Amino acid sequence: MGLLDKIFNRNNDEEDVNDIEVGYQFGEGEDAIPSVTLSNVIGPSVITTNDNYRDVVLISDTVGHHTVWLPFFMTPTGYPHIFKPDMLDQVLANGFVNMHLAVNAFSTRESVKKFQDQEQNMMVDTITKSQQGQIAKVEANRRQMDEVTAHLRAADMQLNQLFEISLTGVITADSIREADMRAASIEGQFASVNGSIARFDQQALTGVKLALPLGYHEDNTEAWHTYREVSRSAVAMIDFARSGASVFNEGFPFIKNLSTPAKNIEYYNHAGTDIMPVDSYSMIVTGSTGGGKSFAVKVFLYRDILMTGNPKRGFDPDGEYISLAKALGKHGLNLTFDHDSPFVINVIEANITEIDIEELTGERDADGEPLETDALVNSLRSAGKKVVYRNNNYYVQRVSINEAIDMGVLVMNTFLTTLKQEPMNERENRLVLNIMRKLFEERGINSDPDSLYSGTPGTRNGLYYKSLPKDQPTLTDLFIKLNEEKGAERLVNTLAEFVSGIGTYTLFDGQTNYGNNISTKLEEFLYVNYDMSKLDGENTRLKFITMTLLGYQVSNSWMKAPNVADKIKLIMFEELTTFTTYEPIKDLAAYIAQRGRKYSAGGIYVTQDMSQFETDQKYISIKNNSYNYMFFKTQSTQAEIVQNLFNLSDGATRIISSTDTSIDTRSKDHAGLFIQGNQVTHGIVDATETEIKLFESNRKKRMEAKL
């Protein structure tokens, strides 16, 4: 069986009823190219390696017209020292180039061994160069050895991994002459960024068969000279050939493309790049129970966290993501909420936020003109404001006092309405606002960030502070003040359930404390899972309360925090529509989708029921402000809703409809549609056995992965 037969699963003994005759004659005395099937023509079709046409591919567009495909690859030594994804975007912008990246991962053991070999070889070479007096090369070797040693340590702790990559491409032209000219142009583009490519037709070791069909790489020894070994961080910098559109950006390997013969691995990136920015970081994920949506989200979060270092937070009503927090080791933290939870979260504390100086338009000079940036910075600093400079921009940091005061109102209304009581009236609302304002004033806390600190060094919960944080207002403080007011009995009685020493669910009362050696902002954790699975049955009301207060606390204290301002943050809402009846949760979810990008943040909205996205304005807003979507197997009625909401084709809709048996891949676990903007990929999560064992909810599938 030949290469094309293997690619298209052909058996030479069988006759394809869809065969069509395509014949060409290339030069005097040349043999005609064999007839091919329709799939060959689409696939592409005809490969020739004769002297006239060298190692190129000829596609049948119309009778008598030849399209030439000239393949190339980046040489192992030709990768620029700093590999920027926009380099590939600029090459692809020519319009006559497609590229593919093959990635093979080494195991942890193999990675450690290879790093050890590199370290040993460089050590021997350094000793030799030192004996020869080549001081400059010795110093260069030592710098490289430090880098290899760092990679080795990271690999040993499973924080790094070794990959081998092969970047191949195809230039399309109407003639050999045009292909040569275009190849020279592409070589020049790569050379301008210190990159180097080679054409397969000029290589004695191999030919076009290694590059075509695009994404197909046969396992053989002929391909060795196209591969280069790189670390995991380097692999995470490249995205290739997504949905056949060849869009390159920073990302991580995630799915197998079921629409390509080679089932090539597609990189995924929800954040976009400078050249190809996205409208939103938010994502909607839907599918029936067992369809693979939660599994896909866990693999997505796991790889994104470890490969890009971008932090995440997850609201987990059913304990589905505890395994993710545990799998992340020191990077993950799971917090389980019940009456005996060993931590305290102060949901009415004030936090530091920042605003871009360009958004401050009130400052003007003597002539009434807006101040220039330098003058504005000096003016703000003279007025005692804290101005910081980061990423070529100025930001004004301040304490969000008004947000904290408003949280007092939200807390009281949440407690009341979950008891089926009316929210606070105007008098009660004003009373709580005034008390909250006084509580901050009594502690000397104002909009100045320094007002949050005592000025005295010391240790708290095992952590040293140059200036210890001040104690902030708590629910107990609010309770005491309300108890002193006439006509506040309703508020006092409602609040009592959540006050330490009186109530039964008191983890929101007191100074924030997660335990010894853990910061109050949890900034050392890339993923924090808020597990509410124990708040079921008679505690369902507490689940709504916890979800609401946590949601706003995470938004105020983490999403807007200056120390993670440069990170792309995601907040995951598992089974969002189970909270449909409670408006504050919907308000928060919609706010993150609408305004999250301002803070480099977005939401992941996981749900089984998409009907809310047709009628509810908050959910419609989430849909309109999302850019990424994952659709998995679902009921036919839900599939129709998804089709109408997102203008899917009938074929795409059949892929996710559980009643359609005509799609073979429907039986594949974790398969579905992966959409970014207007690009749709039919794929399957490319999960490892380890990830299946860690994240698969179905016990049978976990056991199968262990065998």
From TrEMBL:
Residues 283-409 form the Helicase HerA central domain. It comes from the Bacteria. Signal peptide: none annotated. Transmembrane segments: none annotated. PANTHER family: SLR6007 PROTEIN (PTHR30121:SF6), UNCHARACTERIZED PROTEIN YJGR-RELATED (PTHR30121). This is DUF87 domain-containing protein. It comes from Weissella muntiaci.
